[in-house]
Amino acid sequence: MKRTDIERLINALKREFNDESTGHDWHHLERVRNNALLIAEKENVSDTFIIEIAALLHDVPDEKLNSSEAEGKRKLEEYISLLSLSEDEKEELYGIIYSISYKGGNEVSLTSDKAMIVRDADRLDAIGAIGIARTFAYGGKKGQVLYDPDIEIRSEMTLTEYRTGKSSSIHHFHEKLLKLKGLMCTETGKLLAEERHEYMLGFLKQFNKEWNGQE
């Protein structure tokens, strides 16, 4: 029954997210799911059903992808209705999904191992080569400039400032992506983040070199 539920959920998510162009598409959901299952295996967590579902559903209520908070909540409830879950499982699932967002650094503290795994899995997909590609896809979709050196890098932001303040795709590296390695919750997440973090540093070094016309 659990595997049937997951297959039903995957088919529904593919229909909605396959052509999403901000970097939050079906393939992102699938990568986060795979990351989460890998981290769970390395961390010796065997009960992965809720982890897998939470990874697949984590972006459904995201305010970036919905016209309102209420719409996101409604969509999430519709997807969850496809699953055979107990009330306790539903409560656990909602708790994970609504706790993993970065929110400009205003994130909540986690106490659940499963939430830590899903958060790390999502953040791994925000860094490295894939993270770089997703950053520019999202920035372009939202009409954000590639880079403007006259914009100050923000070190501390409210959620509103993070969502609506003036920034650029390159600024996003400094305002979020380069911070994620230090915010990983699991030992496996920390190890997997190392190479991706270094790759971003190399990219930014090359970007600045070309931007400034240096040899």
Describe the structure.
Helix 2 packs antiparallel against helix 3 (49-57) and helix 7 crosses helix 9. The chain has 10 helices and no strands. With 215 residues, it is mostly helical. The termini are far apart. It has a single domain (2-211), classed as Hypothetical protein af1432 (Orthogonal Bundle), CATH 1.10.3210.50. The mean pLDDT is 93. The chain is 60% helix and 0% strand. The relative contact order is 0.13.
In total, how many beta strands? Answer: 0
Strand content: under 5%
Task: Give helix % range.
Answer: 55-70%
Structural class: mainly alpha
- Series of secondary-structure elements, N-terminal to C-terminal: HHHHHHHHHH
Per CATH, the class reads Mainly Alpha
The major β-sheet equals: none
What is the level-2 CATH architecture name?
Orthogonal Bundle
Characterize the overall form: globular
Cα gyration radius (Å): 18 Å
Uncertain runs are: none
Oligomer: single chain
Q: Could you tell me the CATH topology label.
A: Hypothetical protein af1432
Work out the count of structural domains. Answer: 1
Number of helices: 10
Rounded to the nearest angstrom, the distance between the terminal CA atoms is 60 Å
Mean pLDDT: 93
Based on the model shown, name its key terms.
mainly alpha, Hypothetical protein af1432, 10 helices
Short structural summary:
By secondary structure, the protein is mostly helical. Helices cover 60% and strands 0% of the residues.
